[in-house]
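re: that chain from earlier
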Amino acid sequence: MIRITQFVHGKGTVSDAIRHRDTAPDKMPRKLLAFSENRRPIIFWNLTNRCNLACSHCYINAGPGAKRNDELSTREAKNLIDDLAEMGTPLILLSGGEPLVRDDFWVLAGYIKEKGMKSALSTNGTLIDLETAQRLRETGVEYVGISLDGATAETHDRLRNRKGSFEAALSAIRHCDAIGLPCGVRITVSKDNFREVGDLIDLAEGMGASRFCLYWLVPSGRGGEGHKSRQLAPGEVRGVIDLLFRKAHEIDPKTMEILTVDSPQDSVYFLQKMREVDPENARNVEKLLQFMGGACSAGNRVANIDPSGNVYPCQFAQDPSLLIGNVKDNRFSTLWNNEKNPVLAAFRKRPVELEGACGICSEREFCGGGCRVRAYARDRSLTAEDPFCSVGTAVSSIPRAGQPE
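^ sequence. v structure.
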């Protein structure tokens, strides 16, 4: 997660991160959770595979009627929440599928609040009317991330495979704003919609969104279908980051935060731009990224639990060979603290011995070698080069498979 706004405006200081290094995650300022050294991770919990939409890029293949027969029961889910509370988990992000279609959603969300933990919701927004927004706030949900995959109904509805889903999502943002529930806009960027990013940022800001979160397409689930043809070329990636960088300067940081997710190497290109326009702050950001040991949090500061209770290093790593274990067989805390687990050991190894362009890149200390999941998806190796990197110093001299040179 690259917090562009925080870095641009000098808010992500290394001194702040170091000062809070040993702070319990549940007591740490939310803006610094990503910098915590404590292995009490933020949990991305896919409550269900069911969804009222069937989005073309869904990383979990969710859709109508997609419920797994082995989804965690209410009792099993509550046992998991008990364990996470005992661990001191700072935040549970409730996702899906569409989490609001799960029959016991309100029971589980309320139980998280009862156990003293914070929760956020990742949703397509189509089921949030004013009453639902009010209930979410009362149940303890502190933030709602609403997906918008275009600045127009034509683009969004096509990618979401449901006419009217764009207007429904906009209505959800208005309802959250009306009752004072913080909400943000999330977009998964591909060749289908990258030209609308600027307009979507303006739309989000105008509607009172507190965060604009950009995800790059990941080769997982339906997002892996036709992935190469839909993924942005290096120059297009840099163009989008240039836009985010400019918007982060233009927008009041107290109004809306801008960040990218699932692409640690964004930090390298961002640093290159910072060195040009704000060298002093760039040095501060360098120190912060070095302190973090790279920007990827998978297997360290974040974890994923899928609808069946399977535990993975992150939500995009739902590959059988990257399975850490299942909470039906062992408590999450037991799985997470098993230093002998080969998957966790591979993700936590520092420094990482990388191959290809990432192995010789002089900037790899700032990104930790990019996204290991993308590397694994292409080469079945966690040490392979990240095929999506377009910004490292080695990129210009080494052709990348599946990308324009």
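Residues 92 and 119 are 5 Å apart (CA to CA).
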